[in-house]
Design brief:
Strand 1 and strand 2 (about 170) form a beta hairpin. Helices cover about 70% and strands about 5% of the residues. It is elongated, with a radius of gyration of 21 Å. The chain has about 250 residues and is mainly α. The chain has helices at about 5-15, 20-40, 40-50, 55-60, 70-80, 85-105, 110-115, 120-150, 175-205, 205-230, 245; strands spanning about 160, 170.
Length: about 250
């Protein structure tokens, strides 16, 4: 059996062992997104009031890029894709990254795997690939669920928005492309946290250290981004946060 075949076998086995948890996580994340979208009709206008709120609240809602939460795209972005979805995917990524190497090390099963004719590199690549695959699966399930249910909640319809100066503008409904781009951005943020958990877990072999380091960096990055929006004097803090690139550019 070649090295690629061995890595492929480890990869498939790891995915198979996590098929139930993958289904539960994917369904749960998709359900949160669908339920959030269902409130567009009742919360869309209310959410719009946050557009003029203080900068800290606006940054947490992803409203710093001219996003209007009264529109379908703006509502999904501010209520889900800029906060809930990336955090849920990050939680999954950190759990997977921690379990990939440190989990087996803590349970004493990693030595058994390495006693077989496989290399550490093959195991490392297979486990990291498995983590990425599960995150992609969860993201795809979420995309399909929101795309299918969006028409039920009028999220695909164009809406008329009344501006403060009395004029009216038309805002397009959400498209599959919008959902794809927003989902890819959330996935990228989650992959960063998962990679940190994986790296620390592989280096230390300790689940607690890996989970703590990845979770701490994720929270710290979000706090730094929020603080940077409180006052212009702290704007430099945002350069240390991945959220600057995700939220400031309004991926949707």
């Amino acid at each position: 059996m070649s090295g690629m075949d061995k890595a492929w076998h480890i990869y498939r086995r790891w995915l198979r062992d996590r098929r139930r948890s993958t289904m539960v996580w994917s369904a749960s994340i998709a359900m949160v997104s669908v339920v959030t979208g269902a409130f567009y009709g009742s919360l869309g206008q209310t959410a719009g009031q946050n557009a003029d709120s203080d900068s800290a609240v606006s940054s947490m809602l992803g409203l710093g890029s001219g996003i209007d939460p009264r529109t379908p795209v703006g509502f999904l972005w501010s209520m889900n894709y800029s906060n809930q979805l990336p955090w849920l995917l990050m939680a999954l990524a950190i759990a997977l990254g921690t379990a990939a190497i440190a989990g087996d090390e803590s349970e004493g099963t990693l030595e058994y795997l390495l006693s077989k004719p496989v290399t550490r590199t093959q195991v490392a690549l297979a486990r990291f690939g498995g983590m990425v695959t599960i995150l992609v699966i969860a993201s795809i399930v979420n995309l399909v669920a929101v795309a299918v249910t969006a028409p039920l909640f009028d999220l695909t319809d164009a809406v008329s928005i009344a501006e403060p100066d009395g004029t009216t503008t038309m805002a397009a409904g959400v498209t599959v492309w919008d959902l794809t781009v927003g989902g890819l951005g959330a996935l990228a943020v989650a992959l960063g946290s998962g990679a940190v958990a994986y790296l620390v877990g592989a280096a230390t072999g300790r689940k607690g250290v890996a989970m703590g380091a990845a979770s701490g960096l994720a929270v710290a990055g979000y706090v730094l981004y929020t603080l940077s929006n409180v006052t212009g004097d702290l704007d430099w803090l945002s350069w240390f946060s991945p959220w600057r690139w995700f939220i400031d550019d309004a991926m949707m």
